[in-house]
Amino acid sequence: MNSVPQPAAIRYHQLNNLTASQIAAIRSIPGHDQAEVVPIQATRPASMFLDQDYYQREQKKVFRRLPLAITVSAMLIEPGSLLAHDDYGLPLLVVRGRDGKVRVLLNDGEHKLATQAGVARGEAFEALEKVQHLLLELPSKEAGGLIWAILNPNAKPDFSHLNDEVLADLDALELGQQYLYGHKTFEVASNWKQINEPFLEGYHVQRLHANSVGPLFADVPTVVTQMGDHIRQTSGKIEFAPGGLENERNIHKVITHAYMVFPNTVVITSPYYMSLMIIIPTAVGESRVNYHMLTLNPADNPKSQALYQTSYETVLGVFGNEDFKAAEWCQKGLQSGALDDIGKVYSGLECAIPMQYDTLDKYLAANDSASA
Ligand SMILES: [Fe+2]
User: Fold this and answer.
1) Cys-Cys link to 252, which of 49, 119, 203, 269 (CB 3.0-4.6 A)?
2) Quick one: 113 and 28 in the same domain?
3) What is the rounded distance in angstroms from the CA atom of residue 346 to the CA atom of residue 352?
4) In the structure, what pLDDT confidence band is assigned to residue 317 with cuts at 50, 70 and 90?
5) Are residues 198 and 273 in the same domain?
6) Ligand 1 centre from 332 Cα, in Å?
């Protein structure tokens, strides 16, 4: 008797799939009526979003020194796939070899391989294999569902910045095993840090997103955990209650994880997908955001296809028309000089923003020999 193939069961993340650290953070979320804001008053000068010299120091001491996310593993699934990438201002070729290993090559000089942006296969890869040994390879690593590289051919391959704790979290979320539903690039007329800021706090959600996703979230502080240079926020959604979490079939229906992998990579969970954004400075007041929507289950039937398409359009609208537009307005405000005297002020609901800037300050203060 022939058996009819059954569709694979739909998978969700449950509390017990997560790391001990993630579980402890979730367990520490108070009920919404118990949430308390710890007051802080932190300020940062407007110049850090406007000043060309500051921008150059960030480029040198952060973006040419630390491992940076280049793209998601899901962009380069098959051996032999090839991605041309020049968003960071260096012409890169990201290649998954026939051995399955990813290499990041500097597509520079006389052996420059002509490729169109995007993923190529076949001929481009054949040509690359011939000249690969002539191209300079940058230190790179594939971990946590992302491809990371240090954009300095003279750098030691030191990836300790991506510590075990943050990688264990990303692995528990199975970022490396997810399906890429869609990706989109946004050009945003804002300093990169201004774009990062709303992903470091929940305070704006009820306000900026009042007419879209705001009602799904509670107006309470997030549980902020520093993991080396990185920041994890764990928060209860509107229907969150502290009891019975181990029985939730889909933990991301009641809680949200938001990661800022320093300096510029954002991971945010939603009930049926995850958002992964790489926020790339292209000039002091301009950035490129590479958005990716990842799903734990394939879009292999009309129902999931419809759910993911609706989600994709919603999330692109929320980020593109609300968060990124707000970043552009804020950047304009900064450029007007209105905040030159007082700087930007951060409250207790935004405490992770000054944390991120303390980390940035640490790298900007490092001496040149450490950043060579
Ligand atoms: Fe937002």
Assistant:
1) 269
2) no
3) 9
4) very high
5) yes
6) 18
> Residues 199, 186: one domain?
yes
Residues 299 and 341 in one domain: yes
* Distance from residue 133's CA to the centre of ligand 1 (Å): 44
Looking up residue 120, the CATH number of its domain turns out to be: 2.102.10.10
Backbone angles phi and psi of 106, in degrees to 5: -85, 115
Contact 4, 213 (CB under 8 A): no
Q: What is the pTM of this model?
A: 0.94
pLDDT at 181: 98
Distance CA 263, CA 357 (A): 10
What confidence category does residue 221 fall into, taking pLDDT thresholds of 50, 70 and 90? confident
How far is the centre of ligand 1, averaged over its atoms, from the C-alpha of 140 (Å)? 31
Say how far apart CA 186 and CA 67 lie, in whole Å: 22
Q: Answer yes or no: are the C-beta atoms of 75 and 83 closer than 8 Å.
A: yes
Mean pLDDT of 197-211: 92
At a CB cut-off of 8 Å and minimum separation 6, what does 317 contact? 212
